[in-house]
């Protein structure tokens, strides 16, 4: 369990660094931040929706009959 926590911590640190770099590039007008954020939120919405559908299917079809 300790290695799991370390892995999650490193992943979260990596996400924060990536978001920080994207924000800095947007502040300095190197990239168009609105397009990047819109695509990011659209992608997150699709991933969230598909995860909900998968969890619903698993909850209904793979339910233990005890």
Task: Tell me the fraction of residues in β-strands, as a range.
Answer: under 5%
Average predicted confidence as pLDDT: 87
Low-confidence stretches: none
What's the Cα radius of gyration?
18 Å
Instruction: Summarize the amount of helix as a percent range.
Output: over 70%
Count of DSSP strands: 0
Order of helices and strands: HH
The description of the largest β-sheet is: none
Overall 3D geometry? flat
Distance between the termini: 29 Å
The number of distinct helices, counting runs of at least 4 residues, comes to 2
Counting helices, strands and paired strands, the structural category is: mainly alpha
Keywords:
66 residues; mainly alpha; 0% strand; flat
Secondary-structure topology with pairs:
Blueprint: H1 2-27, H2 33-61
Quick synopsis:
This protein has helices at residues 2-27, 33-61. The protein has 66 residues and is mostly helical.
Tell me what you see in this structure.
By secondary structure, this protein is mainly alpha-helical. Helices cover 83% and strands 0% of the residues. The chain has 2 helices and no strands. It has helices spanning 2-27, 33-61. The longest helix is centred in the last third of the chain and has 29 residues, at 33-61. The two termini are 29 Å apart. The model has no long low-confidence stretch (mean pLDDT 87).
